[in-house]
Amino acid sequence: MVPLPPLVDGLRQAIRENVRSEKIECKTAIIRQLLPDIKAATDAGFTYVQIAAWLAKAQGFSISGKHLAVIVSQIKQRKKAKEPKAQLNMFDKLKADKAADTAKRFTHDPVSDAKGLM
Description:
Elements: H1 6-21, H2 27-43, H3 48-59, H4 65-82, H5 90-104, H6 110-117
Helix pairs in contact: 2-4, 3-4
């Protein structure tokens, strides 16, 4: 591995220190931290417009109710996408395939039913 010039290494160190010390100012990050409280408020019957008004009054955090709803929805979609999907193990999958195959077959043979009537 080729050693980096001291200038590049110094810049990397400066970036790392700033990342650790600076607080995130984006609205999505703030809403992500407040998400449990926002969810509790919506479950209690309050609207996003009311919650946005509370945030503006208490924290000076200006956001519209519609924008708040969009950000909350995006956060929930990302969480849902990250959740692992339930996977069947090999034997359960084979059982499911066999059950599907037997469901496709006829339960009775129309030709043998006609022969039985004769």
